């Protein structure tokens, strides 16, 4: 799920195997996914692309152990039109118990059905975003009612100050994000609102990340971009996900403790990989 004003950052990989969404709240007003697809006349269409779907879907199969993977940032994997592909996502997550996956969604009733259908996977965290106090209260309550392995709350795009203290005590809330809206016509966000969330979170043993803030000229600044050199990432200086010898974001966040794996564990080959290979095989004609 896009955050309405820009993608959620701080993850190792974000496979975009499903595209498209439609707006569900005021936080979605300037959603880049919707704006782009409106231009193409595809607003509200949720789709997968024939070949890239399999390649993107299998991305998490290739990642390093203890990676932090965010599913489909330019869509909502819990959109009602995406449910036909849930089985594929679940298959990869089951095949990689050494990777921590996250689904961000505003469609929590559908997320609840996903968990009901496939069970609470030990390596899947569910998250939702909020833009103001009212949406935080409603969505946090709905999120915590779903028996997921872990929860994420994402305050982006943040449109007003919020009091998160009633929700921060949840033992399964492991990650809180906050950030302003980005892009053309981005709505203003006072850095004090972000700082206030940081202060509230500092009282609890959870990970907190700011994704975008406002500079002195009122412009949005992105704290961390995927695949950048990392030198301007104040949280993890020097981190570059392209260097093989660098730890994953998941390792740096200490996600190992959520992935209890037997010694010498090797991930099995998922059925989707076999399907992809079969599709890519060139059958030569007989002479
Ligand atoms: S739910 Fe997310 S992806 Fe869908 S319209 Fe809203 S911000 Fe965009």
Any idea of the CATH class? Alpha Beta
Count of β-strands: 8
At CATH level 2, the architecture is Alpha-Beta Barrel
Largest sheet: 6 strands, parallel
Could you say which small molecules are bound to this protein?
A: iron/sulfur cluster
Mind explaining what this structure looks like?
This protein has 287 residues and is α/β, with parallel strands linked by helices. The protein has a single domain, classed as TIM Barrel (Alpha-Beta Barrel), CATH 3.20.20. Helices cover 29% and strands 13% of the residues. The protein is globular, with a radius of gyration of 19 Å. The site of iron/sulfur cluster (SF4) has 13 residues, from α1.
Please summarize what this structure is.
This protein has 287 residues and is α/β, with parallel strands linked by helices. The protein contains ten helices and eight strands.
List the helices and strands and how they pair.
Blueprint lengths: L31 H8 L10 H8 L1 H4 L5 E3 L15 H10 L4 E5 L3 H11 L5 E6 L3 H12 L5 E6 L9 H4 L4 E6 L12 H11 L5 E4 L1 E3 L5 E3 L26 H4 L18 H10 L7
Parallel strand pairs: 1-2, 2-3, 3-4, 4-5, 5-6
Antiparallel strand pairs: 7-8
The protein binds iron/sulfur cluster.
